[in-house]
Amino acid sequence: MTVQLRSFSMSSLISAWLAFIMRMLGLNRLLGTAPVARPEPARLRLLPPVSDGGGDAASLRAMCGGFHAAVMAQFEQGFEQFLRGRISLQTYRRAIEAQHDAALQRIAHLLGARVGGEITPEAFARETADAEQALAAAAWCLRWADDQLAEPQDGALSQEA
Fold it and tell me: pLDDT, tens digit, for every residue of 93-117?
C-alpha cells in the first residue's frame, strides 16, 4: 500500500483550521455567520471516547498542540506504517520532506504576517518557535532516513521507490 500525500496551500489549511476552531467555539454564531440550523442526524458512536482510551491520540495531539504537534503526529503515523511494511523507507522520507517544506512555508507565512502587521510580536515568537521545532524534528528524521538508506542491514529495509 502506498500513501499518497495531497498538497494544500498554507492559506487553505489555515482557513480550514480557523473555520474548524470557530465552529468548535461557537464563534460563527456570535459573529452572525452561522449557517442555517439543520437538525443533526442521529449518530451511532462506534469508537469509545478518547477519555475512555478510544480514538486516535495522534489526531487529538495534533488538534490541541499546534503545528509542531501536528507534524510529529504525521511523523509517528508514517513511521508506524514504515515499521509495519505498509510503506517503503523512500516513501516515508518523501513524507518527511513534505512536512519539512510545510514547516519552511509556515515560517515564511509567519514572517509575511509579521511584516504586514497581521500578528503580534508575542504570537509571532510563539508560532515561529513552534514551526522551528517542527523543522528541527523533520531535519532529524531526514538524517535518520538517509542513514538507513546509506547502510541497509541484511535487506531488512524496503528499497521500493
Answer: 999 999 999 999 999 999 999 999 9
Nearest to residue 139, comparing CAs of 108, 93, 81, 90? 93
Residue among 102, 106, 100 at smallest CA distance from 140:
100
Mean pLDDT of the chain: 74
DSSP 24: H
Separation in Å, CA 117 to CA 120, 127, 133: 7, 15, 24
pLDDT of residue 125: 93
Residues 6+ away with beta carbon under 8 Å from 145: 89, 92, 93, 96
Neighbours of 145 (CB within 10 A): 21
pTM above 0.70, yes or no: no
The 3-state DSSP class for residue 155 equals coil
- The angle at the Cα of 118, spanning 116 to 120, to the nearest 5 degrees, equals 110
In 97-115, which positions are buried (b, 16+ CB within 10 angstroms) versus exposed (e)?
ebbbebbeebbebbeebbe
pLDDT computed for residue 57 by the predictor: 47
